[in-house]
Amino acid sequence: MTDPATAENRVFDAARLERLRIVLVGAQHPGNIGAAARAMKVMGLHDLVLVAPERYPDPEASARASGADDVLEAARVYDTLDAAIGDCALAIGASARRRSTHWPMVDARTAAMRAIDVAQDQTVALVFGRERSGLENAELDLCQLHLQVPTNPDYRSLNLAAAVQVVAYELRMAAGDAPEAAPAHEPVSTADMEGLFGHWQDVLVASGFLDPEAPGVLMRRVRRLFNRAAPDRTELNILRGALRALDPRRRPLRGAVNADDSSADRG
């Protein structure tokens, strides 16, 4: 058993918790919004973002918050997930239902450790989907990491607020063990990664490699490849520079020697 005195004296890195954002996409029941706010405040999280909630603000949300009214009052509402996480260096999407597309999954503990590491100096979003259907594939595409809470295979249904509570607990525990060393590289924002993916698609279409009418499967694999690699700022700049150089539509560099001309000169 854990020594109560040891647990009580654990030093948490509150600054990292401040850089963690809980994002609820398309929440259908206002009570779950309030219960999620309560779960957050209990674990020291305060940044709540709502994407296109069906009913908010709502008295039931305030009632279920049970003292976490400050979290609700500070909550920001966006129309799209892109706008809600555009400034985040890492977005982690929670997904419970099985899908035809294979998604690389980690458990909540592993995801929390990664989130706390990045939150040393960057904002991290933990994204939760709708009560009935969860996150859509296009929304998971915007997340670099996907987490799943292990549940009873005969009864997988986990309430939205309960899922937030489980993940918030793991985040707080991970913050207690956060390393002091600086991260190995400077993370880039979700918006910057979306710019990279758009650049890839544009150049692949221009080169004739990608069918513009059916980019889905190939571009999803490109996303997964670079999300696994987690490029830093310098690496992202290298990739963007290489794409510009390889773009078949680019103009020749000023002063460049044509291969035919140079061979003629040698003759």
Annotation keywords:
48% helix, 267 residues, globular, seven-stranded parallel sheet, Helicase, Ruva Protein, domain 3, 2 domains, single chain, alpha/beta, disordered C terminus, Alpha/beta knot, 13 helices, 7 strands
Describe the structure.
The chain is α/β, with parallel strands linked by helices and 267 residues long. Residues 1-10 and 253-267 have low confidence and may be disordered. The chain has a seven-stranded parallel beta sheet with strand order 3-2-1-6-4-7-5. Helix 3 runs parallel beside helix 4. Helices cover 48% and strands 11% of the residues. It is globular, with a radius of gyration of 22 Å. The chain has two domains: 12-176, SPOUT methyltransferase, trefoil knot domain (Alpha/beta knot, 3-Layer(aba) Sandwich); 190-246, Helicase, Ruva Protein, domain 3 (Orthogonal Bundle). Helix 3 (30-42) links the parallel strand 1 (20-25) and strand 2 (47-51). It has helices at residues 4-8, 14-18, 30-42, 59-65, 69-74, 81-85, 108-118, 137-140, 160-176, 190-207, 216-229, 233-246, 259-266; strands at 20-25, 47-51, 76-78, 90-94, 105-106, 124-128, 145-147. The protein is built from 13 helices and seven strands.
Number of domains: 2
Distance between the termini: 86 Å
Indicate the mean pLDDT: 87
Tell me which CATH architecture of the largest domain applies here. Answer: 3-Layer(aba) Sandwich
Instruction: Based on Cα principal axes, name the global outline.
Output: globular
Strand order of the largest sheet: 3-2-1-6-4-7-5
Radius of gyration: 22 Å
Report the structural category: alpha/beta
What level of helicity do the residues show? 40-55%
Q: Which topology of the largest domain does CATH recognise?
A: Alpha/beta knot
Low-pLDDT segments, ≥5 res: 1-10, 253-267
User: Biggest sheet: strands, sense, closure?
Assistant: 7 strands, parallel
> Tell me, what is the CATH class of the largest domain?
Alpha Beta
Q: Per DSSP, what share of the residues sits in E-state strands of 2 or more residues? A: 5-15%
Count of DSSP-assigned helices: 13
The total of beta strands comes to 7
Any idea what the CATH superfamily of the largest domain is called? SPOUT methyltransferase, trefoil knot domain
Q: What are the secondary-structure elements, in order, as H or E?
A: HHEHEHHEHEEHEHEHHHHH
